[in-house]
Amino acid sequence: MNMLNTRQQAQLAFIASNAELEVGHPDDCPLPLATLASTDGSEDYVSRVLSGGLTAHVYRIEAQGRSWTLKRARERCLVQGADGQTSFLNEVQRRAELHELKARPELSERLSGIVDTRYASFRRGVLLSPWIDGEVVEDWNEARLTDLFDTVISLASLGLFEWDLCPGNVLDDGRIRLFDFGYLYRFDPLREFNSDGLVSPAFHPIERFETRQFFAWLLSQEQLGGNRALTAFRLEKHIALDRYRHWQRDLAGRGATTSVLDRLDEIIHSWQTSLAGSAEALYLREAWRSHRLDLADDLKGQTCTPLTLQRLAWLHDMVSTRYADLMSSGALAGEVDRRRDALLDQLTLAQTHAMRWQVRQSS
Ligand SMILES: Nc1ncnc2c1ncn2[C@@H]1O[C@H](COP(=O)(O)OP(=O)(O)O)[C@@H](O)[C@H]1O
Ligand SMILES: [Mg+2]
Fold it and tell me: Is residue 145 a contact partner of residue 170, using CB atoms and an 8 Å limit?
């Protein structure tokens, strides 16, 4: 077994204890708590059973004249490892904190993209929120990018780092909404880069968005041809740059350490320099990183999808046709063996695994 970090140890100890953690009061529920806690999807107040949840069963329910989302913990989370096993508790813990933060008048607007929690109980395995009448984002425009970045940077400046910004965890109902906090972890925003402390400077909110979903969407834009993908990427980076400048000033004003400020400075400068030119090298670098990281996750969990194969095809194509550009852009800096043939061999092997480990698509 891997070494557990402090958060995982504390969460596993909490689960082993009999302690309860609640958000709100059972009387706030639109149906009796016992009813909610035993819902299995066959009831007539359940209007939809959502598939895809690995940590929980998710139902749309109708009660008191409106729709709700009921998330019920699975007996055993289908995601292996301590992070998977603690994700429901983690979500209830973060919901409790977000509930308090959202109630603060000076934060309520900034956190309006975070779904409300009507009631949650860790021991009863119940988490109830208003239903978001929205869609998965099919097209990333300026308004949506700005909205999402404002929310995730607000979370980060409050010391909450969201790791899993995948398409299934973002809805658009006119505003961008976040509602799944199974992998939202605490960190010290003035002294740490993210919830790994200071050991992984490469992970930050914009990187998470790019890796977990933006570059998959850009693949589809690349297929549409022309300059669509690069134009969309430049727009995204312009917005990100503006938001990170703000964030850096805010952190400086709050007395963040030089290592935190310098690292953001470095990111800001590299984006700024690239945007002054064509930004093609930056595109290659960020795309390579995004596809590599997501591919590694899929292979590690042996949960591959058609998207895994598309990412692999992109990586393979770039090594075959644009190896010199990859080298000069710095995209390959993190590769152990960056020789062209070695990379092609590695990707071919990865493709064999990715085909063997195809699972049914889930959100
Ligand atoms: N409040 C909500 N309103 C509308 N749909 C929701 C809401 N919460 C979850 N969903 C839907 O249910 C799916 C699974 O919920 P999520 O909280 O992401 O569970 P999991 O932790 O299993 O990924 C989401 O992808 C989304 O489509
Ligand atoms: Mg989810």
Answer: no
